[in-house]
Amino acid sequence: MDPTGASPDAAATEIPPAVAALAASGRVALVHDWLTGMRGGEKCLEILCELLPQADLFTLVHVPGSVSRRIEARRITTSFVQHLPAAARGYRRYLPLFPAAIERFDLGAYDLVVSSSHCVAKGVRPRPGAVHVCYCYTPMRYVWDQFDAYFGPGRADPLTRVAARLARGPLQRWDVASAPRVGRFVAISEFVRQRIRRYYDRDAEVVYPPVDCSAFEPDARGPEDYFLAASAFAGYKRLDVAIEAARRAGVRLLVVGQGPDAERLQRGAAGSRVEFLPWQSDAALAQLMARCRALLFPGEEDFGITPVECMAAGRPVIAYGAGGALETILPGHTGILLPNQDPDVWAAALGEFRPDAYDPAVLRAHALRFDRTHYRRRMATMLGDVASNLPRRS
Predict the structure, then answer these.
(1) CA distances to 117, 167, 203, 209, 260 from 42, in Å
(2) In which domain, by residue range, is 28 found?
(3) What is the DSSP string of 15-75?
């Protein structure tokens, strides 16, 4: 990686001339929900920054130093949420204010707006005549079909649950009403494409998010005696299923991550062979993947970069057969898709699992279909097409 934080293959795709000319003119804006850590969405944003090297960046909240140098090097404009009490750690509590905050950004100077959105970024207001492309990770899952996973019984304190119910309807209405501000939707998976159609009545093309397969490689020593789960500790991730299954099967499970569900998950692991580890460095996590029996992926995800990373490290995945997992995992070749989230079903799968039934070379070859080079190429082509057809300013 170079001093700006660019990836080693940053030059692998030439920036289309129309995009380069537009970016150099200062007439391109990037919009991202918040900048508080380098997760899957930020890895997509990083490549958008490479393709649009002089675009200004707008976001609700920015925690300096929390994202890559490529992103940090941008001129970053934040919203009024940045200045609210404890916003750096507790910004999610201000969710009802997010629509107003995102709409207050002044984008009058920009001909092309590219939003990177899983919450409200897609609701910005471009100037009349500008083109808005939204790379959509999902419509707001916590106000639509996964509301109970975030705010159901045992998922949040009573006051938060009451506030969430009061805010849900207005947020849903705003989410639908702001969708026409997007000229072109791009979804991260076919699963998300269907959700965009369901909630916004819009079509979208699919461009899978980038997986840096070069950061992972199989380990010739083979697997050790542990299963692995690596995820934020959020309700919809359903780590409770993996933990309870490991407890019932009596197998060793390493759980990597942190988040609001930590205390509840740790209580559920009492008396088992489940071990919790904090977030690991990229290199350490890659090594844990390369030596695990399999990665457990019990949630319904919009895509799921972590399973593809594990396959790039030569190890299979045991996943709930829903959402993005249906597009990335080949049953019998790269892992197992289970029909539900019943811990008994998962425990039986863990007890019967044979790690030697999977060929690391086959796993890695499949993962390479989702390598970041493909994302960069597809997005460069799409942005080049958009830039070439932008109306001229009068």
Answers:
(1) 10, 27, 24, 10, 20
(2) 17-210+372-388
(3) PPHHHHHHHHTT-EEEEES-BSS-SHHHHHHHHHHHHSTT-EEEES-B-TTSS-HHHHTS-
223-273 pLDDT, tens digit each? 999 999 999 888 889 999 999 999 999 999 999 998 888 999 999 999 999
CA distance 265 to 233: 8
CATH number, domain with residue 232? 3.40.50.2000
The per-residue pLDDT for 3 is: 32
Cα 110–chain centre separation: 26
In three-state secondary structure terms, 351 is helix
Within this chain, do residues 136 and 203 fall inside the same structural domain, yes or no?
yes
Residues 202, 311 within the same domain = no
Task: Specify if 9 maps to a domain.
Answer: no
- Give, to the nearest 10 degrees, the angle between helix 239-249 and helix 343-352: 50
The residue among 113, 146, 137, 141 whose CA lies nearest residue 187 is: 137
Per the structure, the count of domains in the chain is 2
What confidence category does residue 13 fall into, taking pLDDT thresholds of 50, 70 and 90? Answer: low
Within a domain: 6: no
Say yes or no: 32 and 143 in one domain. Answer: yes
Which residues have a Cβ under 8 Å from the Cβ of 374 and sit 6 or more positions away? 208, 210
The CATH number covering residue 133 comes to 3.40.50
pTM: predicted TM-score of the whole model, two decimal places: 0.87
